[in-house]
Amino acid sequence: MIKHLRLCLLLVLFAAGLRQATATPNDEHTWALRGLSEVYDPFLWQPFGMKGDTWEVRIAESEENPGVYKIYDIYTTCPSVLDGSFALINPEKGSYMVIDARETENVQVIEFALNVKDTSYGYYEFEQRTSGTFKNGIIRFPVGAIHFGLEEVNLNTKGYYNTVPYEIKLPDAPDGSVALSNVSGLCGTDNKVTFDISKGKDAKGLKIAVFEGKHDPNSADFDLYSRTVESGKDVEEGPYELNLPHKGWQTAVIISTDENGDWAAGTTHYFFSSDYNPDEWTSLGMVDFQDDTFLPIFNVFDILDPWKVELLESKNTPNYYRVLNPWDNYPEPDILDGLVFHTGHNHYFDLDATYHPMMVAIPETPMGVSIEGNEMTISHIFRGNMLNDHQFKFRQDGVACTIGERNFTANQEGVFSISIPENYFLRNLMFTVKNSDNALLAGAEFKVAGAAGASAVTDAKGYADFFLGGLDGTTREVEILLDGYEPYRFTVPFENEVEIIETVVLKTNSGVIGIEVNAGNESLKYYNLQGIEIEKPSQGVYIERRGNKVTKIIR
Q1: Which helix (H) or strand (E) holds 61?
Q2: Distance between CA atoms of residues 46 and 358, nearest Å
Q3: What is d(CA 351, CA 362) in angstroms, rounded to the nearest whole number?
Q4: Which terminus of the chain faces fewer neighbouring Cβ atoms within 10 Å, N or C?
Q5: Phi, psi at 342, each rounded to 5°
Q6: 429: number of Cβ within 10 Å
Q7: Are 186 and 272 in contact (CB under 8 A)?
């Protein structure tokens, strides 16, 4: 699968023209070998969504111009070249880079001969876009500083930026490193995670801060993070317990400092805080869940029978659902070696149908499952739907799971589905909103009472449509709001699945707004103040009866 992904991405990269970077001759230098330097390469494997290699290279300094460095054997000794994943363009020539670090805040690559290629699709080139820095014996080019791609790639429109800092550590650089180990997991227990923090022998202090959201460690720009972490919490080496302060994904950033209190190095790790609060959800009961997530990963294509899971609906966000602890009762938990199901706290995945019931998304979330110590997360690749056969259903290869650094399509047999209770109905609400002068009103918001955010907003033609779900026998209150007009409120009953098509007339005067019904299943009648039924109210005060709801209206 990885080879197939790599092939597809290389075909994309192969598409347009290359812009050659400018090089400066360096024959005026006499090079004095400084020793071996560790280098991490963020280029070759990045297009394939994989981490690069770390290895040692020779580094020399110019005797005539101290601060100008030449790095030898960059790809000559690269592990991915030695194992045949990539190759040298000309095996008789070396691979090097010359870097001018005399201005510590304006470090430049002044010459290079990378001499590396993909074995099928051509050689790599790059150009520098942003200056690097030289601090604490480390030459560092920040995220986005280098733009790179394959032969015949137009770097203005295609190609990639480095998503991790490109670093070259000099042999005598102080060890200000920081690292995490023994991490308890993505979620921990009770929204707490534990880990051990260690620092290099030359690091003087440690700081930690937590940021809301998921910041992949491969995209951490510590030049940016350090300015925030400076005011973070001082910590010591050794075991550390972190209370996760935010809901959902969040990132812990740990920075080591030097003797001046400046940052020396940093690392990040992301965690997930369970944001399940039972008071914010309505249970729709136990439903059938059929899933082939795990087995295809191991080339086992048996399809398991559905099992029961609890389906919830958000009280705050219409058309937002949650499957609670879906793998707690996986029918064959011992089917694969190394598969572990976590039960110490809530795990779930969400079904977001707020955009449209035919465009259902699964936001990325941990699954509560790990394989050989690597925790798994789940998300959608292609949106699913919830209108066919009374179920949420995702197409073949429509769901992905991530294990460590690797992504897989989960439902390779196309059986990822969650049933919807038979007594749960969707109402399709379609409205045209006008004012008393028959002018169409754009920007009118339809909001579900007690829920956050608008369900729909009328367009330039005064039209809006949206779906609303509910259990048989329940009702949902909806209001229409527009600045300068009185709000209109109405009740949506759930008895069966029908469309509601209405024209709403908003008025700026006081009183309750009238509504003209073009179609629908609710009983609507009008009466004058003497209690006599009339066909259609004109100007004056009337009584409107919609089902069991009676309202006084002014026309």
Answers
A1: strand 54-62
A2: 33
A3: 5
A4: N
A5: -90, 135
A6: 22
A7: yes
What value does the mean pLDDT take over residues 434-455?
A: 86
* pLDDT for residue 9 is more than 80: no
Task: Give pTM, 2 decimals.
Answer: 0.68
Return the closest-CA partner of residue 351 out of 317, 327, 397.
317
Structure tokens at 499: 């469309």
Query: Which residues, including other chains, have CB under 8 Å from residue 109's CB and lie 6 or more apart?
Result: 21, 97, 98, 99, 100, 128
Summarised one tens digit per residue, pLDDT across range 97-136 is 999 999 999 999 999 888 888 766 667 777 888 889 898 8
Q: Are 82 and 53 in contact (CB under 8 A)?
A: no
Nearest to 164 by CA among 223, 100, 111: 223
Give the tokens for residue 439.
């002018």
Looking up tokens 């029908």 gives: 498
What strands lie across the sheet with 374-380, from one edge to the other?
339-341, 365-371, 374-380, 399-403, 406-409
Task: Write out the two tokens for 368.
Answer: 């509560």
Q: What token pair was written down for 270?
A: 């992301």
Residues in a beta bridge with 361:
352
The pLDDT of residue 48: 64
Structure tokens that stand for 137 in this block:
């014996």
